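I keep forgetting this: the sequence line spells out the residues, with the fold written below as integer tokens. I include a record here:
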Amino acid sequence: MSQALILGKYSVGTGDRFGHQARAQLTACLKALKAGKEVIPVWNKSNREHNLIGSEPGAVREAADAAVQALGWKLPYFVDADHIGEQTVDRFLGACDFYTIDVADYIGKPAPEAEIQGFVKAHGHLLGTLHLKGIDEAFTISSTELEETARKFLFAVKTAGQVYRKIEAAKGKGSFVPEVSMDETDRAQSPAELLIILAALAGEGIPIQTIAPKFSGRFNKGVDYVGDVQQFEREFSLDVAAIAYAVEHFGLPANLKLSVHSGSDKFSIYPAIHRVIQRFDAGVHLKTAGTTWLEELIGLAEAGGEGLVLAQEIYAEAFAHREELCGPYATVIDIDPGRLPSPDTVRSWASEEYTSALRHVPGNPAYNPSLRQLLHVAFKVAGKMGTRYLGLLESNEAVIARNVTENLYERHMAPVFLGR
């Protein structure tokens, strides 16, 4: 390519399980643009989600292209091969120009001892006390910590390198945005570990533009952050400063930024993220994942009639198969079975009762996070309904689109990027 693809300073990753909401999602980006912020849309869908729905990556590209053309979007946009590895990347090579390389499964698997020792020897410059710009506190990296971090993460980084080179061989250097994801693991990475990981990624020759570490606290699907917000803000600040250091000293791309995965509905930390990116003049990639599917359900229930009946039926099926549906997401959901209403109760609900239980409005006593998390992972149920579900999406497009746009802009983008 004559010019490398560059991800903008602010970007939002947005899932669209059934490929019907790209225009409504892009409308949220247009609202942000009108308010003075360029927020680049990145449509993401994982291999697992494609398999559950029975879709292909090309459909995500088609929906994104159609939305961009229909709304006259003039800025860049991307389609993300979400959470791919070497075994799953091939089906995404034609349609995608953003690759989230997920190496969480390889964390803790040691590289050959000679490679670990070679890395430690080559990175002695990281030893000692480091002062990061914009941070009052300093931290110290000892030779033991350097070696232990290499032992834990080097193999994962080298695996990322293999996947990156496979994509590069197929698509050409600079023709896609690489992200490395390490968030779906058991323990948050410290800022010192992140710095060492970034040094390893630079050594592996991966020009990453975003990195998704694991932060402390719980990042469950579709519900608010659970943890110490002050501690999160401290960690986030240190990570942003570590990235700036890595860009300056390791030769990584100047636009490298943090990616906040499972960013859907983490309302309590959004002000902290905004404060930090303003203080450091840093970018951020906010990944909102599957909440668009929930807005479809909310829109159907709000529409009443057949839409409400279908939304009630989806809940009943999800309730009946909750163990099967929740299994793959066990590490990122916390459902209290005692808080789940019976299907008969939900069948008796009017539109407002259903939407109030599902819509995430903090402080609303009717909001039910357990019900929301169950339905978040139940998109497979709607997928099996095929044209019945899709037909109702189309016939109720106006009310659904309004909910999708409002959710993405008002609850996610405005607090993070505009500080509202």
